[in-house]
Every structure is written in C-alpha cells, then in structure tokens.
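Appendix B. Raw example, untouched.
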Amino acid sequence: MKCRHCHTQLTLPMVDLGSAPPSNAYLTTKTLKQPEKWFPLRVLVCNNCWLVQTEDFAAFNEMFDSEYAYFSSFSTSWLKHAELYTKRMIERFDLGKGSHVVEVAANDGYLLQYFDSACVPCLGVEPTANTAAAAREKGIEIVEEFFGEAIGHRLAKTGKSADLTAANNVLAHVPDINDFVRGFTAILKPDGVSTFEFPWLLNLVEQNQFDTIYHEHFSYLSLSAVRRIFEANGLQVFDVEELPTHGGSLRVFAQRLDTKTHIANEAVAQILAKEDAAGLNSTDAYFDTQRKADAAKDGLVRFLLDARADGKTVAGYGAAAKGNTLLNYAGVRPDLMPFVVDRNPAKSGKFMPGSRIPIVTEETLKETKPDYIIILPWNLREEVSAQLSYARDWGAKFVTAIPALVVSQ
C-alpha cells in the first residue's frame, strides 16, 4: 500500500488489531442470519510525511451508506460543544446575516442549527441519507454528497462560497485526503477560514486509545502531518487549539495559501514542538502501541471472565464504534456481555457488528440491574455515569477499559 497523501510505499507498522467488520455496520434481525464482511484492521505509518493510516481493505461506500447509524445530537456534551463553537466563531470572525457558513459532514444538523438560530446563513454537506434527513427536519439546507474538490468548485460557482467552513471529526474519515482538502480551498472566500477538529494522534499513542482505530478512520492525525497535507493542497494553518473532546482533539484553523489574511499564532509552533518531542515525526513513537493494546485487551477479558466466575452480571453502555473495535479485538460475545444499552433509536433493536451483542434501550438496564456497567465510549464517562447515577442505588459499578481497566462507584 502507498501513502494516501504522498504516495510513498508504506513499510512501518504501528498496530495490528486482527480483523473486524466496519464498526458502524450494525446488524438487524434479518442480517443477523447472514454472513458478515470482516476486514483486516492494521495501521501503518508513512516514514516520509508521517501520516498514520489504516491499511485499505473495506470500500468507502460500504461504511457510509443510507443506514449509517451515528447521530451527533444524542450526546448532550457534544451539543454544548457545538453551541459554544458557534458563539466563538461568530464573535471571532464577525459573522452575521451577510456571511455564509458551510459544514462538511453536517450529520443531523447538530452544529448548523445554532448558526441558523443566530440568523447566520448556512449550508451542510452530508452524504448519509438518514442523517441528512434529520438535518433537513431542523430546517438546514443539505447537499447530500461526498465532499471534494469538484463539489467545492461547484458550490463556489453557484454563490455558496464560505466565510467559514467547519469539518468536525471527518478529516480522518476520507480515503482521498488530498481531494478533500482541495475542496475547502475551492469553496473558501479569499479571506475565509476553515476549521477542522479531529482526535489527536499524540493522545492515541500516549494514552493507549487504540479503540479509536477502525475502518471508517482512514487516517490518524498529527498537526505536523495535517500542516504538510494542507500546504500541498492550498491551505495554510494559522492557529490551533487543544480540546477535551473525543479523548483529546485538536481544532485547526486554516486559510487559503494564496491570500494569508491571518498571522500564524504561536500555538502552532508549540504543538509542532510537542509532537517532535514525542517522536511523532520519527519511528520512536510507534513501537510500543501493540504491547499496550494487548495489555488493555487482556485486562478486559480477565475482568469479564472473573465477573462470570463470581456470579456477577455485566452490561455494556454505548454502542459506539470504538466499543466495537475493543469488543471484536478482545473476542467478547454475548456470553460475557449479554447486551449493550444505547439511547439512539437508530441502534436500538440491532446488534453490534462482529460480536453480535444485542443493543437495547435503557429500560433493560433498569429491569436487569447489572452489577457492572462497562462504558464503551470512555471519553463520555462523566456524562454517562451522571446520566446513569440511579444505577448506584442497586450497587452497580462503572467500568472503563481504556487506557487500562478502571472500576469505580
């Protein structure tokens, strides 16, 4: 395989998580009787541009189809994050009725609803039919296509150029990252700004967040690699912020390389220096990833086996993609985790891909009163434990498995 950015032959391995189905390919009672497609799940590192990337096996359209089940609005903390972003961007870049905001991967309108409420004209680009429909129900205009350079030019030519573009947790999801970035260069006004949010590779490496690796994530991003990719495709990074979301993310601010309206912030140099010190631009940072992933997997399996031997009951919470990576790598099946609870009605009644664990509503949790609740989206531990605080009444304990097993009241 060659690097998806610079086309260098890839030879440096980072981690091998065996094989798994696409993490958002949830099963129905009908498809449960059919075979699943499993693909190898390996990550390689380009030793030229240092882009970390999943080895390609699954087709792009197999992972982002009309049954795509991730709806952003089911996380209250994420909605608060989106609302705060809207307020900050309006203030910082003086956005108003004469401005235009475009969000790529608009999902169910979780973000653009706040721009719309503030009377800032906006448009979403979202390729998955069910989330696009949910956004339209909120009154958001949606272009239902995969974004890239051609769409960026087309929207610009039809008067849809952007003062601000937002791309949250999507830069890692695109197979042709060069074409995707050129789309922002095409759609931006000369003094426009693009923001990108993505989980930070440094946290994946240092905090053993290997469960954020799945087929839908084609790339695992550092600022160093992103800056190189942007400059090769017409954008310049001028600011960056560290965020607590998704276990630790970066928000990168970029502008057109041919205009350079904004002066580069010192924060850019600071993050780049931190990545250099951590070895992200060399082979140093990547050698221990496999050992740490194996240790976390083994810790979870030991816990589940011990719980069963002790007559304790265990439930999962949050049918998240990262949970599917962990459960499939650990080989967990319904005998060790009988069900996973999720608030999203698009997932309820379905089954986790690979493990085939049933996904149920919160009522099942209240009825069965398990001894342990394993929070699979560990980045939402505080939100979920607060939401499920009533479980403490029957003595339930909360568990997370990443970066290592933790059990708490």
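End of appendix B.
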